[in-house]
Automatic annotation (TrEMBL):
UniProt keywords, alphabetically: Iron, Iron-sulfur, Metal-binding, Methyltransferase, S-adenosyl-L-methionine, Transferase
Domain B12-binding positions: 31-168
Chain ranges of the Radical SAM core domain: 210-451
Gene3D superfamilies xref list: Aldolase class I (3.20.20.70), Cobalamin-binding domain (3.40.50.280)
Protein name listed in UniProt: Radical SAM protein
GO molecular function list: 4 iron, 4 sulfur cluster binding; catalytic activity; cobalamin binding; metal ion binding
InterPro entries documented for this protein: Aldolase_TIM, BchE-like, Cobalamin-bd, Cobalamin-bd_sf, Elp3/MiaA/NifB-like_rSAM, Methyltransferase_Class_B, rSAM, rSAM_sf
Highest classification ranks of the organism: Bacteria, Bacillati, Actinomycetota, Actinomycetes, Kitasatosporales
The protein's required cofactors: [4Fe-4S] cluster
């Protein structure tokens, strides 16, 4: 039996554009049947660190907790109701990190209620931070919705529930009382210097199911001093000017890494800090201090983190120390190559810093993942040209997924960008119904860019580039088919299909070059503004991609893949 059950819902596409998600269509058993080479493809699934932090905190207070992450699992409604009936918890928490979790969160909530109408249910997570009131209004089946950092809120709730006291005074909640929703005010923030380590339920589950656990997530800091208009963090509840960026001690973080290596064989860490580099001297000392602690203990680890280009970390010495400590890649909040866009974002940095950062990363051999917003509510054609020029000048198109540069700012409720959209366009959400739909309709604002040519070029870019991105996702499967067929042929003494593999590799390697041509063509046409621009853009961009496929693969991509399927046999495909 557990005192608390915490759940991370499955991700379900809502109809909003979604490029950066973790949708995993197979379950753990199917995963285990995959060829090991293909498993890499699924290892992008990360723990839900928020839930892990709450589970760790509650356990340190003496409570028994079950934390369940439904990525890669597809339990039926009955399995969820059975779980609740078996565990008989006094508290159930459902986490919503972003929009993709909400549809399944509503299903889970209904299953929990079905199992036990009186169990206390709270919803929380990053998505709730500025949607808590809305969610409380639209999903009254939950007892409350928590906003902001949740450790002390949930601890307070557990204390009240255990003692049979009224919980409505616990800070950090929205709930119904006397016929309307009310709030108990901003949450209290945990002291990160004393906080328990995140619990590792997902890794324990994977280890138990013989799924390898080389990857884990943790954090070294929370918050950020900056005020970007598209971001949540500047208005985080409970945060004041004096505590905008809070840290864990480097020694504590490195102790945790040693533990993870001992228990789970961790080789790679995601640092989920908002801004790993903090600000100025404090940020420098914290990050470099952390790296030096890793080096002092001689740990072999690789990690990824995210920071601003104006942190002291964009400095040759700092980067060298971080790289030696294991920083394999970092997401830098560049956002744009157009100074006027950076100004509108209130980014507080300069495009020149972005250039310097790109150069330094290249020289130091660290993989750069640029945080990038190509289009936002005020973008002009000139600014798109500036973005393109920057991508070329900084030579940043060569990345894991070059077409991810084609991104549009999401105006999330709670951000300055959302507030500034005076005349939102109604979103289309054909596949979502009920309370999830009601929340999604208000959780972000869709907008139309004043210059129609920018809107047209965006529409064509995003449509055609989504097809390219889908093909890139499919690549490992096609490659695996070729490998399997080649091995089978070899046993029969027939020639292998390795040349096809080289063509596929060439296709992936050339995507950065294709991206630049793709952006150029779109902008030239938009500048020219011929009749029926939208249609022309789509047709010509498709023709460009088609010509690329023919040059590199010898055929249009769908024809190439169909040929491989034929050559390798449908049976291999099904396997
Ligand atoms: C890692 C990450 C991802 C990973 C997620 C993988 C994973 N499983 O971790 C990936 C890369 C997939 C991702 C994708 C996206 N992300 Co993201 N991501 C993050 C990031 C950097 C870290 C999350 C984290 O672990 N935080 C640390 C933990 C400790 O904090 P936490 O999760 O908020 O949890 C605390 C509270 O929320 C609360 N809590 C959490 N769960 C629960 C449950 C209960 C019951 C209660 C009571 C409380 C509670 O208590 C926790 C402890 O204090 C955050 C920024 C940040 N630093 O938080 C953005 C963030 C969550 N992402 C965000 C966004 C917008 C996205 C994308 C839409 C970006 C994009 N344009 O593609 C996509 C979403 C997919 C899509 N729709 O296409 C926003 C979410 C805002 C929102 N309103 O939805 C954030 C907050 C960034 C930001 N500053 O705007 N993201
Ligand atoms: S620097 Fe990053 S975390 Fe900080 S406010 Fe800007 S977008 Fe948010």
């Amino acid at each position: 039996m557990a005192d608390a059950v915490l759940m991370t819902p499955r991700e379900i596409l809502t109809g909003f554009s979604s490029v950066n998600n973790q949708n995993v269509l197979i379950n753990d058993d199917e995963y285990l049947r995959l060829d090991p080479a293909m498993r890499l493809f699924y290892e992008k699934v990360r723990e839900n660190l928020g839930v892990a932090c709450i589970a760790g905190h509650l356990r340190s207070c003496g409570y028994a907790v079950r934390a369940l992450n439904l990525h890669g699992r597809n339990p039926s409604d009955e399995a969820i109701t059975d779980l609740i009936r078996r565990e008989r918890p006094m508290f159930v928490g459902i986490s919503i990190m972003y929009d993709l979790h909400i549809v399944d969160a509503v299903r889970l909530l209904r299953c929990v209620r079905e199992a036990d109408p009186s169990v206390f249910v709270a919803i929380g997570g990053a998505f709730c931070t500025y949607n808590a009131k809305l969610i409380a209004e639209r999903i009254p089946e939950a007892d409350c919705v928590a906003f902001g950092e949740g450790e002390l809120t949930v601890e307070g709730l557990m204390e009240c529930l255990a003692a049979g006291r009224d919980w409505r005074g616990v800070p950090g909640l929205w709930f119904w009382r006397d016929g309307r929703v009310r709030s108990s005010g901003s949450p209290r923030l945990p002291d990160l210097a004393k906080e328990a380590w995140p619990a590792r339920d997902l890794l324990v589950h994977h280890r138990g199911n013989r799924i390898p656990t080389p990857v884990a997530s943790t954090y070294t800091s929370r918050g950020c001093h900056a005020k970007c208009t598209f971001c949540y963090v500047p208005r985080a509840p409970g945060v004041t000017a004096g505590n905008a960026w809070r840290v864990r001690s480097p020694v504590d973080v490195v102790d945790e890494i040693e533990f993870l290596q001992r228990e789970f064989g961790t080789r790679f860490l995601w640092f989920n800090d908002d801004n790993f580099g903090g600000a100025f001297q404090d940020g420098y000392s914290h990050a470099v201090g952390f790296a030096e602690e890793i080096l002092r203990r001689d740990l072999k680890i690789s990690f990824h983190c995210e920071f601003r280009v104006d942190t002291g970390l964009v400095d040759r010495e700092a980067l060298r120390t971080l790289r030696r400590a294991g920083m394999a890649s970092a997401l830098l909040g560049m956002e744009t190559g157009a100074p006027s866009m950076a100004k509108r974002f209130r980014k507080g940095t300069m495009v020149e810093y972005n250039l310097d950062a790109a150069r330094l990363f290249k020289q130091e051999g660290i993989e750069l993942e640029p945080g990038w917003i190509m289009v936002e509510p005020g973008t002009t054609l000139d600014e798109l040209w500036e973005n393109l020029k920057f991508i070329v000048a900084a030579d940043i198109a060569v990345s894991e997924n070059p077409f991810s540069f084609i991104s549009r700012a999401i105006a999330l409720r709670g951000t300055e960008m959302y507030d500034r959209i005076a005349d939102p366009t109604p979103p289309e959400l054909p596949d979502v119904e009920g309370p999830a739909r009601a929340v999604l309709l208000e959780a972000r604002r869709e907008y139309r860019i004043p210059d129609r040519r920018v809107e047209d070029v965006w529409a064509a870019w995003s449509k055609v580039s989504a097809e390219v991105a889908d093909r890139k996702e499919e690549l490992p499967f096609v490659a695996q088919l070729i490998v399997d067929a080649t091995r089978a042929r070899r046993t029969r003494g027939e020639p292998g299909l390795r040349p096809l593999l080289s063509r596929l590799r060439g296709w992936a390697d050339g995507l950065a070059e294709l991206l630049v041509a793709f952006l150029n063509l779109g902008l030239l046409l938009a500048d020219e503004n011929p009749p029926r621009l939208a249609e022309r853009l789509e047709t010509e961009l498709r023709a460009l991609v088609d010509a690329y496929d023919r040059r590199v693969l010898g055929d249009p991509y769908p024809v190439f893949v169909a040929r491989i399927r034929r050559l390798c046999g449908e049976q291999a495909m099904a396997g």
